[in-house]
Amino acid sequence: MFMVLALVSALVFLQSQAGNYCPLENINSIPGCFDALKLATGKDISKLTRACCRAVFSVSSDTCYLLLFPGKAYPIKIFRDICLNQTNVIFMVPIVSALVFLQSEAGNYCPTENINSIPGCFDALKLASGKDYRRLTRDCCRAVFSVIPDTCFLLLFPGKAYPIKMFRNIRLNVNYVSAASPF
């Protein structure tokens, strides 16, 4: 993924020379959206809102570039993909949380040996359940992906278990931005 971002960065300069910039009216009309997009280029997608993503999708061209920093433009498609992935996580968390209690009653808990063997991984997953993905590491993600079966529930807090698939999806979505790979 790092190579993809490097290629995109290399193309950014060439494409931005052509002046194919996206109009910013809708993006600038959403408070904090422009800054959230800047943060998203540096792996922090926590500030993206539904309204900001709607503004990104309202840009009519699929081939234009967002000029977020002086001399640095990014393809709009990157931000559309980030928004698609981020909104899936944002909308899934409340639904998953509502089901947590019912599913945890079944006792289908994930084995945690691999997760516990990675220092800080369990705490990083607790934070990720609250949308803070900054502490997820490659080794932690490998541990999450090694959990079998993928239908089990990870008991993070007393009485609160989350589907392991939720953490796999979070990691895949974060990978797109961070260029880190779970493998």
Structure description:
By secondary structure, the chain is mainly alpha-helical. The N and C termini lie close together (11 Å). The chain has nine helices and four strands, in the order H-H-H-H-E-E-H-H-H-H-E-E-H. The longest helix is centred in the middle third of the chain and has 30 residues, at 76-105. It is 57% helix and 10% strand. A hairpin with a 2-residue loop joins strand 1 and strand 2 (72-75). The strands form two sheets. The chain has a two-stranded antiparallel sheet with strand order 1-2.
Brief synopsis:
The chain has 183 residues and is mainly alpha-helical. Helices cover 57% and strands 10% of the residues.
Mean pLDDT: 74
Number of distinct beta strands: 4
Question: Low-confidence spans: pLDDT under 50, at least 5 residues?
Answer: 1-17, 87-105, 175-183
> SSE order in H/E notation?
HHHHEEHHHHEEH
Report the end-to-end length measured between terminal Cα atoms.
Answer: 11 Å
How much beta, percentage-wise? 5-15%
Overall 3D shape: elongated
How many helices? 9
Give the strand order of the largest sheet, numbering strands 1, 2, ... along the chain: 1-2
**SS content category:** mainly alpha
The helix content is 55-70%
Largest sheet: 2 strands, antiparallel
From the alpha-carbon coordinates, what is the Rg to the nearest angstrom?
A: 18 Å
Keywords: Signal
Protein name: Prolamin-like domain-containing protein
